[in-house]
Write a structure and sequence with these properties.
Number of strands: 0
Strand content: under 5%
InterPro entries: COG6 (IPR010490), COG6_C (IPR048369)
Distance between the termini: 70 Å
Protein name: Component of oligomeric golgi complex 6
Radius of gyration: 29 Å
Oligomer: single chain
Organism: Mustela putorius furo (European domestic ferret)
Largest sheet: none
GO cellular component, one term: Golgi transport complex
Structural class: mainly alpha
Order of helices and strands: HHHHHHHHHHHH
Helix content: over 70%
Pfam families: COG6_C (PF20653)
Length: 301
Amino acid sequence: LKVRIEQVIVAEPGAVLLYKISNLLKFYHHTISGIVGNSATTLLTTIEEMHLLSKKIFFNSLSLHASKLMDKVELPPPDLGPSLALNQTLTLLREVLASHDSSVVPLDARQADFVQVLSCVLDPLLQMCTVSASNLGTADMATFMVNSLYMMKTTLALFEFTDRRLEMLQFQIEAHLDTLINEQASYVLTRAGLSSIYNTVQQHKPEQGSLANLPNLDSVALKAAMVQFDRYLSAPDSLLMPQLNFLLSATVKEQIIKQSTELVCRAYSEVYAAVMDPVNEYKDPESILHRSPQQVQTLLS
């Protein structure tokens, strides 16, 4: 029995089969010891040795796969979706976790194995994605990372004992979402003619005099900007960063659009308040900015 099992294990039949063998041997050890107690010491010792060997080679196999991820890190694909290496590794992880889920091993032992499996695979995967994205622009990098993390999250969500890892992945997704929200708001403000005006209003100090006397903030410049801004208000969907169309999750895309639009409304409110403030000496300010912040918010909601 020992020789035959050793032959199968040492032949390295792949991580999934090794894990199934390891779990099966643990089950047999648990069952036989429960029936015959210590009267089959030799058999139980043999089964335990084979269990530990198969488990060791299983984790060696996983670690080898994970270490190869960093040997040749691919550039992200043009659509900023998950890389081939990520998809292949998540397929392997899914198969291992599926066999783990149907495992006959006691719950606490399964949970301990599970934590080790996730550390062995997920940490190198995250490192690979970070290195892969390191030369991309800000919006491209955030989009690629959100897509990669989203794929990891949807894979883990199907299985038990993943709550802590899911929380960590969600935390990382949200950090990259913040980047995309700010990038999208900046994209809109620049193309809708408000970016430089908003920046000047934010940085303006009273000792610099009134805003109306600044060359890029006189009434003519503001009216020209409002023509551009009105164009955006009539078709807000025309000003979406191309990267948003590459996002795998429609919910994530909607969240970015909603929260970036809130930032645009806030920026307009600040500009509006500054123009309406008598200190800034605009003549007939309502004719310059003819829409109130509430009207802008209504048009964009």
